[in-house]
Input
Amino acid sequence: MNENYMLGLFYLIHLLASSDGYIDESEQKAIHRIKRIEKIPDEVFQKFEEIIQTRTEREIFEAGMNFLNQCTPEEKLRAFSLVYKISDVDGRVHVKEVRLLLYATKLTGVDFDQVMSMAEQMPDLS
Output
């Protein structure tokens, strides 16, 4: 996977997981599981963690969208499917999470039904 995919994925995961005001332990574990599943190098993950410390939510969203718009359709679909899986990890799907996913998929031209279908085929993140 390319770095645009990796960073776009983690920017959106961060926004979704923190949309309820905090990232709980189950979401943290899921984030690290995705890091392993997607074989994201530590350097890329550290870069992501450093960048989100200094950016606003809006800047993170815009950067994430820019990264994902440079990805292949398959990479976009996979990223959104993983983000969708994160939304259910804490046992509660918040309205803000759904809105973020719907808006982001619309901006990138990804079909939300395909996202849900692919997410169902992915391993559990908890």
